[in-house]
Amino acid sequence: MSTAILTGQPVPGSSLETDLRSLGFDVRIAADTAEAETLLAEVPADRRVAVVDARFVGHEHALRLGLTDPRFPLAAIPGAVTAQQAGRQALTRAMARESSAAGEGPAGGTTLTGSLADRVAAALEADGADVYRPDLGSLVATVPDDPQTRNEARQAVAAVDDEAVRLKSAVKARDGFFTTYCVSPYSRYLARWCARRGLTPNQVTTASLLTALIAAGCAATGTRGGFVAAGVLLLASFVLDCTDGQLARYSLQYSTLGAWLDATFDRAKEYAYYAGLALGAARGGDDVWALALGAMVLQTCRHVVDFSFNEANTGDPAPTGPTAALSHRLDSVGWTVWVRRMIVLPIGERWAMLAVLTALTTPRITFYALLIGCAFAATYTTAGRVLRSRTRTGRRTERATRALADLADTGPLAERLAAVLSNTAQRLPGFTAPAVALLGGAAVVTTAALTDFGGPWTALAALLYVPASALAVARPLGGALDWLVPPFFRAAEYGTVLALAAHAGVNGALPAAYGLVAAVAYHHYDTVYRIRGDAGAPPPWLVRATGGHEGRTLTVAVLAALLTASQFTVALTALAVAVALLVLVESIRFWVAAHRGGAPAVHDEGEPA
């Protein structure tokens, strides 16, 4: 249990102790600074501790925001300061210094004056500690000095409905049109219902996954009733998907494991649904596995573009230039903001389209619409980011170049060649990395798509792709357009697998390729989530064991050249199972260990994927 140390003389009629206990704090009272310091030392180091002025007046939700958010080691609001395990030493030092400044020894007995919590928070910041101060908005948090100001503060508390504020803040500040206007107006109340019944965000996330898997199963029946049920259940899954994040914000139940589950399950739900549609179409005599795999490839490459661009520009100053200026002008016109959010087809709009088209049309039409929409969205967003990058003036940080290198997923073959080519790469123009990655990837995909299955040409193109990909990463990815290298690699690998499986022309080849791309895509998503959580990339042994993007591309191309179509299908299936086992076991081990080890809680408040 967390501990709250109340400092100063208690105020008659104050609900502060009750509010703190309702937030899970064991309340202890200190009459002076020395006693507060003693009580602080008695609290176990692995527990959260808060120092709160007994004269505090404010909303309970202000206390909740300031004292219970698990994402920050140190946090403060007027009249209160808190520390988790990672911030306990800093808090102890600041408390000791305040005690010394007040002229109190370990056995002092001077009555506290002023707000000890505010002085400690100021001392923490003076020491360079990062003290989180939440934006309270209309919520009240103050320490009145006299009865009149106390009365005014209490009136201010009564004038604001903190439950309404809490519900409003549960909704993500930036979201898509469909989510904002068609889901969040009622899903926030579902989140509150879940909170009041003790449900956790992870439980709601799991319920969303199960609902989506049932939707995929309904789609796999291939019947009109199954398609209608699939559409309805997919929308229900999305409502739950919104609810889990809103529940986390409503109750401040953030966690490392929860953020990973939320992000991972979103991808699993969508790609499982694609597979369900393909199975349902096959039952009706229509083979759309190539479309399903194409949709997954396109959507995954879109995400890699988002991730790479964002990581590459972490820490950069605000963008300037004509493109940024036009974007700012469009943002000043309200309706254009929503149009621009909708045309990038974020998850809300995408799933709504999938649900409606599944219920009313056929899987083939659904995939055609999805591919056209995602292709337009990818072109729009990528073109805008390329234009912004051309006017980029900031120097890429070491963290950004390291993140791009991790996202590249370079295997042992290209890694060794890159070391040999590093001196040569230093003398080449700045656009070399993305140009070489694009040309090498386009060559192998085009060869796989245009030549007959079983010939040697794709294997030769893949063999040339290895030094091309090595040259692309032979120097740090610090160029203006180097963030394009990881998505070019993804498109090359996934596109080659798709083309070869499509040319195999036997039953099971495309589903096997779908499984392989899904397993590899999971590995790439997992890399992104680790980087976002400041946990670094997956271990080098995993990248080596899975071959890296160039190793897997070469392996699949060689298998297609040496094996019959049926044997190739079996080999793809075995490869998919092997990769899936490796990346899933290591990923689950890592995230569970990070959660149990007390890794800082994270929560994605970025744009919808």
Written description of the protein model:
- This is DUF5941 domain-containing protein.
- Keywords: Membrane, Transferase, Transmembrane, Transmembrane helix.
- Belongs to the CDP-alcohol phosphatidyltransferase class-I family.
- The protein is mainly α.
- The strands form two sheets. The protein has a five-stranded mixed β-sheet with strand order 2-1-3-6-5, with helices on both faces. The chain has a two-stranded antiparallel ribbon with strand order 4-7.
- Helix 1 links the parallel strand 1 and strand 2.
- Helix 12 runs antiparallel to helix 21 and helix 22 packs parallel to helix 25.
- The protein is globular and about 85 Å long.
- The two termini are 36 Å apart.
- About 1% of the residues have low confidence.
Distance between the termini: 36 Å
Please tell me what the overall shape is: globular
User: Which sheet architecture does the biggest sheet show?
Assistant: 5 strands, mixed
Total helical elements:
25
As a percent range, the share of strand residues is under 5%
Task: Work out the radius of gyration.
Answer: 28 Å
Helix content: 55-70%
Low-confidence region ranges: 104-112
Strand order, sheet with most strands = 2-1-3-6-5
**How many beta strands in the DSSP annotation?**
7
Oligomer: single chain
Arithmetic mean pLDDT: 91
- Give the class from helix and strand content and strand pairing: mainly alpha
Family: Belongs to the CDP-alcohol phosphatidyltransferase class-I family.
Keywords: Membrane, Transferase, Transmembrane, Transmembrane helix
Organism: Streptomyces cathayae
Protein name: DUF5941 domain-containing protein
